[in-house]
Design a protein that fits this description.
The complex is a heterodimer of chains A (349) and B (289).
Chain A: H1 3-24, H2 28-53, H3 62-79, H4 83-105, H5 110-130, H6 132-135, E1 141-142, E2 149-151, E3 154-157, H7 163-185, H8 187-197, H9 199-204, H10 209-235, E4 237-238, H11 240-244, H12 246-259, H13 266-282, H14 285-292, H15 301-309, H16 314-328, H17 332-348
Antiparallel strand pairs in A: 1-4, 2-3
Helix pairs in contact in A: 2-7, 2-10, 2-12, 2-13, 3-4, 3-5, 3-10, 4-10, 7-8, 7-10, 8-10, 12-13, 12-16, 12-17, 13-16
Chain B: H1 2-32, H2 39-57, H3 61-82, H4 92-114, E1 129-133, E2 136-139, H5 140-162, H6 164-174, H7 176-181, H8 186-208, H9 218-233, H10 238-258, H11 264-278
Helix pairs in contact in B: 1-5, 1-6, 1-8, 1-9, 1-10, 2-3, 2-4, 2-8, 2-9, 3-8, 5-6, 6-8, 9-10, 9-11, 10-11
Classes of the chains: A mainly alpha (349), B mainly alpha (289).
């Protein structure tokens, strides 16, 4: 059996397993964790197309995530438009935003592009706060009642349990992975990588740099907006800091940096590390473990302090992870693993 | 007319503090070609330091600058020596990410220690004003902080232009390799430059602490403002950053009066994008590729 068939069948088996999980797992918490994982993979993979393959490190992806989430939620909340219709409006809006951003930011290189992408995301966040009639300002939009999804007269799902969200999340993962795989193996992907490696050389070879950067941006932005819409309807609440804040942009980027930029499985690896870690901190799991193991007594000042504060510490963890990864494995985990494998191969020879 | 004059004056006053923030960032960029995304968080650390000194020792924020400045200098030197120094030759995005990470660590550590509650540092003169005449009045703490800013900026110019170390720093900024060949200790200059940058940001934090809310996330606003200021003035240009700071201060206070205070930051960012689009080298910058 050749390697490719083997790889393909492993992936299919994995997918089949994931499809079957909700049949056997009923715990809403376990499903919730899986959904968060899916969301994170979708976010990371969307960023990866532009940042990893085309080498344009946007620190403003919250703009697309937030606009997608807001569009869907606003339409559902004020006009009663179902999210699976609103999602298209979200994507259309994001395409417009992305093209505007692209035409401004892609004239700039390196640090200037990063700065411009942050500025645009900040303009979006501030606009969401100030356009109170549309967005309900800083209070955000709460819309937890989802209409039932029908095909004809049959109700497919009424979104009462987490199961439909699980499958939507899984669909997003398959979609983003599929698009990335396609990009990686198409002419488009080679253009992206040429631009990433040497913009001037790519240009002199006749690659229309502005065009391909914009294609990468739109692709990446549309997928990010889908993830944003999904987040909005799953959580049932959006407000400016949670979907448009700088933290969101950093978190999206972080998934790829930890896992490895410009690789198909990097964002998956990154999510597998980041999501459980930050959930463990958020849900006080770490504190509980420390208390149970007897390392810290629950009533001591340290115990109380940890219980009180450690749940806010997941962003601190992001910071520490970024610093460690940049200093010690700048190519992410995938790059690190590859390097190890190469070294072993060389030693074997 | 009184309204116009009023907002012009308060714009210039706050612009002085912005200039301080911008000069710090531009100094770091000039010497190391590193964009410091933790700049606002360093400022935030300066604010909390001032707050601590005020509540524990009862020292006035404007006096405690004398303590904050050297402490923040050491903090900056430490950051440079331990972290930044390792990525000087790395890709630009890795440098950016590293400083973002450092900023996150700072703001969240402060949040763990002080919680995310807003702190207010109230002095006897926090809301005092001085009447200038013609219906225009000036906030006392803003005026004092502007005077201190002006003094520090003047001292900094003197340091950079007249002292040997200052000239060595400027030489390093002009051409790192050539400076090294001329026998300048480039590593030491980098530490001094980062230390100075941090000290200036920290001082700016100290100076605005009587008039601003103090909270762990306050930094990100100032990081972004610092970029706008330095890009507007021209990356690496100290004179440009001074000018840029004052210009941004005026723009902000004008748009707060004539548009609305909610949109003033949007105006600043739009201005920023326009500068990036039409004059990316900034007001005083040499065009560089």
């Amino acid at each position: 059996m050749n390697k490719r068939v083997l790889k393909g069948s492993v992936i299919l088996l994995l997918l089949a397993g994931l499809l079957l999980i909700p049949r056997f797992v009923e715990s809403p918490y376990a499903l919730h964790m899986m959904i968060l994982l899916f969301l994170s993979v979708a976010q990371g993979q969307s960023w990866n197309i532009l940042g990893g393959y085309a080498g344009q490190h946007s620190v403003g992806h919250a703009a697309y995530f937030g606009v997608g989430a807001y569009m869907t939620m606003m339409l559902m909340h004020s006009k009663g438009i179902a999210p699976w219709v609103g999602v298209w409006a979200g994507m259309a809006a994001v395409v417009v935003v992305a093209l505007i951003i692209g035409s401004i930011c892609f004239r700039l290189r390196g640090p200037y592009f990063v700065l411009a992408s942050i500025a645009v995301a900040e303009i979006m966040r501030l606009s969401a706060i100030n356009l109170t009639t549309l967005t309900n300002g800083a209070e955000g939009i709460l819309a937890t009642e989802l209409p039932a999804f029908k095909i004809g007269a049959t109700v497919v799902t009424d979104f009462v349990t987490k199961v439909p969200f699980y499958y939507i999340g899984l669909f997003l993962v398959v979609l983003t992975l599929g698009v990335t795989y396609w990009v990686q193996h198409s002419k488009l992907g080679y253009y992206f990588q040429a631009i990433r490696e040497d913009q001037d050389a790519a240009h002199s070879l006749g690659i229309n740099i502005a065009l391909y950067k914009n294609i990468g941006l739109v692709l990446s932005a549309v997928l990010t907006s889908l993830a944003g819409s999904f987040y909005g309807i799953y959580v049932g609440f959006v407000d400016p800091p949670t979907v448009l804040g700088l933290d969101v942009s950093v978190q999206i980027m972080l998934i790829c940096i930890i896992g490895g930029m410009g690789t198909l499985w990097g964002p998956v690896l990154g999510s597998l590390i980041l999501v459980p870690l930050s959930e463990a901190l958020r849900s006080n799991l770490v504190t509980d473990l420390l208390v149970k193991s007897g390392a810290v007594s629950a009533e001591s000042r340290l115990g109380l302090f940890l219980k009180e504060n450690l749940s806010h510490a997941h962003v601190l963890l992001y910071g520490i992870l970024v610093v460690l990864v940049i200093l010690f494995m700048p190519d992410g985990l995938m790059g690190f693993v590859k390097k190890l494998a190469m070294r072993r191969k060389r030693e074997a020879v | 007319m009184a309204v116009f004059l009023q907002s012009l004056i308060s714009g210039i006053l706050i612009g002085g503090v912005y200039a301080l923030i911008g000069i710090g960032l531009t100094l770091i960029f000039g010497v190391m070609r590193v964009i410091n995304f933790a700049h606002g968080d360093i400022l935030m650390v300066g604010m909390y330091l001032t707050y601590l000194i005020f509540t524990l020792l009862g020292i006035d924020p404007f006096v405690s600058v004398l303590i904050t400045f050297p402490l923040m200098f050491l903090f900056g030197g430490f950051l440079q020596k331990v972290f930044i120094n390792r990525v000087l030759d790395a890709l630009a995005q890795n440098q950016i990410l590293l400083t973002i990470g450092l900023g996150l660590i700072m703001s969240n550590t402060v949040m763990l220690i002080f919680t995310s509650d807003y702190k207010i540092l109230t002095t006897s003169y926090s809301s005092a004003t001085i009447k200038v005449g013609g219906g225009v009045s000036v906030s006392t703490p803003l005026l004092i902080s502007f005077l201190i800013t002006a003094a520090i900026t003047a001292a900094l110019y003197w340091f950079l232009l007249k002292t040997d170390t200052g000239q060595a720093i400027r030489a390093t900024a002009q051409d790192r390799d050539a400076a090294q060949l001329m026998g300048i200790n480039v590593k030491r200059m980098s530490i001094i430059a980062f230390g100075l940058g941090a000290a200036l940001a920290g001082t700016a934090g100290a100076l605005i602490s009587p008039t601003y809310y103090i909270f762990p996330q306050v930094g990100s606003v100032f990081t972004l403002k610092a970029f706008v200021i330095t890009v507007l003035g021209g990356m690496g240009s100290v004179v440009g950053a001074t000018l840029g700071g004052v210009l941004i201060g005026i723009t902000e206070s004008m748009s707060a009066v004539y548009i609305s205070s909610g949109w003033k930051d949007v105006v600043v960012f739009v201005l920023f994008l326009l500068v990036l689009l039409f004059k990316p080298s900034g007001l005083m910058g040499k065009s560089r590729t």
